[in-house]
Every structure is written in structure tokens, then in C-alpha cells.
């Protein structure tokens, strides 16, 4: 069984191909569990790696897509969502809500509908790379298509 046969990777790939039949999942020989590892494996800038971070926001969850060289701003996220409290989701919540494990959380193909915020600093890159359901699987996408495929809201959500 290859990594492409794993259910989370197949789910991400199916969603990706439905959006654009020319898209494909890239299997890496080395891990892309962190933004730094992914950039090293792909030979790109760390900022071009999309970190998919799930936050608990009141009684629901919000996925924030952040550039690999940036940090999410809890204060900005709270202000945008007009809420008092925000925290990182637990690893169990990440798995139950997205269907992915930490290190392979894709911005697409989630088990549940999730509101998505996209870091506007990602716009500085021609191409971006995001996890595709496994730490060794990614896909390449441009900023405009990232917004279209995720239906995310572009916001200033970084420190």
C-alpha cells in the first residue's frame, strides 16, 4: 500500500481533482510534518508552505491557513470573529473535525464543514504547498485557487 492509498490522502486528492483534474498529490521521500521540513523537502521558502491550524472558537472551530514563516495572531482572529476567546484545538479535535492528524492537516476535504480564514501574506508567493492528508503528501496551488478551493475568507490574521 502506498501513501496515495491511505484514506485521508485519497479524500484530499478527490477534493483536489474535483476542483481541477490536472491537480495531483505530491508524495515526498522526506517528511513535511512541519513548515520547515516541508520547505526543505520541496526546496522552497518556508513562507510558501501553508500551515493549516485549527482553532476552537466558542462552540465551533475555525481553520486558519497561515504562511509557514508567520504566526497566527489570537487577538486578530478574536477581533475578526467578534469573539472573546480562541484557543488551539486539541489533537483529538483536529482528527475528529478535519479527519486528518496533525502534520498532515489539509486545507481541503474535511469531514465536517469548517469556516476558513486565509492569511493574506500568502499572496506574496506564486505557488504555495499544502498538506494532503499525510506528513509526506502535499499539493501545489496558487493563492487565487487556494481561496476558490477552500472558499476561505482572506484576512490579516498574523502577528
List keywords for this structure.
159 residues, alpha/beta, YbaK protein, five-stranded mixed sheet, three-stranded antiparallel sheet, 5 helices, 8 strands, globular
SSE order and pairing:
Blueprint (H helix, E strand, L loop, with lengths): L6 H13 L6 E2 L7 H8 L7 E8 L2 E8 L6 H8 L4 E3 L2 H8 L16 E5 L8 E7 L2 E5 L1 H8 L2 E3 L4
Parallel strand pairs: 3-5, 5-8
Antiparallel strand pairs: 1-7, 2-3, 2-4, 6-7
Notes on the structure:
The structure is a single chain. This protein has 159 residues and is α/β, with parallel strands linked by helices. It has one domain (3-155): YbaK/aminoacyl-tRNA synthetase-associated domain (YbaK protein, Alpha-Beta Complex), CATH 3.90.960.10. 28% of the residues lie in helices and 26% in strands. It has five helices and eight strands, in the order αβαββαβαβββαβ. It has helices at 7-19, 35-42, 74-81, 91-98, 143-150, and strands at 26-27, 50-57, 60-67, 86-88, 115-119, 128-134, 137-141, 153-155. Strands 4-2-3-5-8 form a five-stranded mixed β-sheet. A hairpin with a 2-residue loop joins strand 6 and strand 7. The longest helix is centred in the first third of the chain and has 13 residues, at 7-19. The chain is globular. 41% of the residues are buried.
Secondary structural class: alpha/beta
Strand % is 25-35%
> What characterizes the major β-sheet?
5 strands, mixed
- SSE pattern, N- to C-terminal: HEHEEHEHEEEHE
